[in-house]
Specification:
Aspartate Aminotransferase, domain 1; Aspartate Aminotransferase, domain 2; 11 helices; 16% strand
C-alpha cells in the first residue's frame, strides 16, 4: 500500500505530478476517461487494431469457457495459433522451426536467453546500449535503461537502489542516428566491430530490439550484429515486442534485413491487446539442437485459450485488412510532420522513428544519469499539457523522452490531432529551454 492510502501499487509511464488518466472504456483509437473526456491513445504498442475490436472481442467471448489447460496438455487452438503465426507473419520461410508461447515478452526473453546459455555453455550476454527487454529474470539484466531495473527510485537521499545483477551483460554500440534531427549514426563505420566481436565471443546470445530508448535499427546494423554473432558462436535473438505485427512496417522489422535470427521473441501486440501474450519462435537450426532433448521450462498459463484465440483473430484481421502495411504507408507523412515539430520547438534535441513509432527527446540531462529521482520531470509535464488537447502520449518514465505510437488503424484526422497536441505540449519545454 502506498503512503497516500492508495491500495493499488503501480508504476506509470507518465511520471510526474500531473493527474494520471483514469480509463473506464475505449473504442478504436480512443480512451474514455472517468471525467467524461475522450482522448486519443497515442502511446499503446499493445493495441495495433485499437481498443475493443469486434473480432478480437468475439474471439475472446467464444473462448471464455473457463477451461484451465496447462502447457503440458495438447490443445488444438494452441497448435493452430502456432501454425497461423508461422504461415501468415513469417510467410512459411524455411528457416523457421517452431513456436513456444509465453505469458509476456519479459518471460519469453528470459526463457530464450536461458536456452541460449544452456546451448552454448556460456553465461555472459550482450545487447545494445539503451536497450529495454523486460523486467523479469535475464530480461531485466538486458535492460540497459537505468530506470527499469526493478529497484527503487525516489527524491529522498538514499532512497534509490538497484537489486543485484544476475549475469554479466555487454552493451554494444547503438545506431543512435536520427532521421529527423540529423544526428550521425555512430555505428556507420567498422571501428566498433573488433571490440563487439570480443564481447560476443564471451556471450551466449545477443538480444537486439528495434525501438527502445528511441533507437531504431537499420537493416545494415542488424546484419552486422548478426554476422558478428555468427563468427563469435553466439546466438542472435531479435526482440520484436514493440516492432512486430506492423508497428514500423511489414510483419517484423528483422525482415527488412537479409539476416535471419536464431530466435524471435514477441509480446504486447501478439494478441492485439486482447490477452497477455508472448512467444519465442525458434529457427530450424536451434530446433535441431533440441532433437532428443527436452527444453525444461513449463508454465500453467502459457498458450491459454483466451490468448491463442486472440492471436488467431489478430493474424486473420491484420492479414485480411492489410493492417500490417499501414505504418509503412504512413512513414513519409510522419517524417514530414516530425520535421515540422523539430523546426518549431527549440526544446527538441532529437527525433527519430519509423512507421507509427516515434521518439521525441528533449534538451536536458543524459539518459544515463536518470534514476527517477525527480518528482515532476519535464517529459511528464509535456505529456500532461498534451492531454489538454485530448491526446495521451507516454514518457517511458524518463526525464526527457516522449514516444508517439497510436493504433495502426489511426486515421488522418486523429493523426492531425496528435500533432496539434504534441505542439501544444512542447510549449512547456520551450518555455524552460528558451
Amino acid at each position: 500500500m502506498s503512503a497516500t492510502g492508495q491500495r493499488l501499487l503501480s508504476t506509470s509511464l507518465a511520471s510526474g505530478k500531473g493527474a494520471l488518466p483514469d480509463v473506464v472504456g475505449g473504442e478504436g483509437v480512443w480512451f474514455h476517461l472517468s471525467d467524461g473526456r475522450r482522448v486519443i491513445d497515442a502511446s499503446n504498442t499493445a493495441a495495433p487494431l485499437g481498443h475493443c475490436h469486434p473480432e478480437i472481442a468475439q474471439a475472446l467471448r467464444e473462448s471464455a469457457t473457463g477451461l484451465a489447460i496447462n502447457e503440458g496438455w495438447g490443445f488444438g487452438p494452441r497448435r493452430q495459433a502456432a501454425e497461423d503465426l508461422v504461415r501468415v507473419a513469417f510467410g512459411d520461410e524455411e528457416w523457421v522451426g517452431a513456436v513456444r508461447f509465453f505469458i509476456s515478452a519479459s518471460e519469453a526473453n528470459d526463457a530464450a536467453l536461458a536456452l541460449a546459455q544452456a546451448l552454448t555453455g556460456r553465461t555472459e550476454l550482450a545487447t545494445r546500449e539503451r536497450a529495454y527487454h523486460g523486467g523479469a529474470g535475464l530480461a531485466r539484466e538486458m535492460t540497459i535503461q537505468p530506470q527499469w531495473h526493478g529497484g527503487l527510485a525516489g527524491d529522498r537521499p538514499g532512497s534509490s537502489a538497484e537489486p543485484p545483477r544476475l549475469a554479466r551483460v555487454h552493451a554494444l554500440p547503438a545506431p543512435t542516428g536520427a532521421r529527423v534531427t540529423g544526428q550521425p549514426d555512430p555505428t556507420a563505420g567498422d571501428d566498433w566491430h573488433r571490440d563487439a566481436l570480443r564481447q560476443l565471443e564471451r556471450s551466449a546470445a545477443v538480444l537486439i530490439d528495434y525501438s527502445q530508448g528511441g533507437t531504431y535499427h537499420t537493416p545494415a546494423y542488424q546484419d552486422t550484429v548478426a554476422g558478428l554473432a555468427e563468427r563469435a558462436g553466439a546466438l542472435w535473438i531479435a526482440d520484436e515486442t514493440v516492432t512486430g505485427f506492423g508497428r514500423v512496417g511489414g510483419w517484423f522489422q528483422f525482415q527488412h534485413g537479409t539476416s535471419r535470427p536464431d530466435m524471435v521473441t514477441m509480446g504486447k501486440c501478439l494478441a492485439a491487446g486482447g490477452s497477455p501474450a508472448g512467444a519465442v519462435v525458434l529457427s530450424r537450426r536451434v530446433l535441431e539442437q533440441l532433437d532428443g532433448r527436452a527444453w525444461q521450462s513449463y508454465s500453467t498459463f502459457r498458450g491459454h485459450p483466451l490468448t491463442v484465440a486472440a492471436v488467431i483473430a489478430h493474424l486473420r484481421v491484420s492479414q485480411r485488412d492489410r493492417i500490417y502495411e499501414r505504418a509503412l504507408a504512413r512513414d513519409g507523412y510522419m517524417l514530414e510532420r516530425m520535421r515540422e515539430v523539430a523546426g518549431a520547438h527549440p526544446s527538441v534535441a532529437r527525433i527519430d522513428g519509423r512507421g507509427l513509432h516515434w521518439t521525441v527527446e528533449l534538451q536536458g540531462p543524459d539518459w544515463r544519469t536518470w534514476r527517477g529521482e525527480e518528482a515532476d520531470p519535464l517529459a511528464g509535464r509535456v505529456a500532461a499539457r498534451a492531454m489538454e488537447s485530448g491526446v495521451l502520449i507516454a514518457t517511458s518514465c524518463e526525464q526527457t523522452s516522449l514516444f508517439i505510437a497510436p493504433p495502426l488503424i489511426v486515421g488522418d484526422s486523429e493523426l492531425e490531432q496528435i500533432f496539434e497536441a504534441l505542439h501544444h505540449g512542447l510549449t512547456v519545454a520551450d518555455a524552460e529551454v528558451g
